[in-house]
Amino acid sequence: MILTAARERFAADGYEKATIRAIAADAEIDPSMVMRYFGSKDKLFAAAAEVDLRLPDLTALPRETVGAALAAHFLDRWEEDEGMMILLRTGVTNEAVAGRMRGIFAAQLGPAAAALCGDPAQAPARAGLAASQVLGMALCRYVLRLPPVVALSREEIVHWLGPTLQRYLTE
Q1: According to the model, what pLDDT value does residue 7 have?
Q2: Residues 35, 2: contact at Cβ < 8 Å?
């Protein structure tokens, strides 16, 4: 109940504007209960924004479909997981959250890039470039709501984004 309220409040207001009082009110509890269970706003945020990218095993896919599969996967993740939106919205203004996001993408996308590119030394750069594309698309589509990007269908986004991800991960 507290985590649900926190996720919704952080997603709506961002980290800086969300307050323990507002989260407690949303959860219909006393603010002291939030502090009792989580200790601080930072710890509550960390629990609320726990994110697993749930990457598919890209090495099990036909190599030429990896980019499109990853683009489609991230569209699903952005649209289904409030935690991803919390991190995106908050990460652009809060260095601690940005660090958390960097860690999530490095720890989860990095190994996938290493498995696909064949050169472990290139994996961090490749994962970073792939992350730049999916994060940029999500920022433009879901946060800034740029009309041309919002207007694109899922298939169009996969069509445009997939080849770039493919190149970053496999070429």
Answers
A1: 86
A2: no
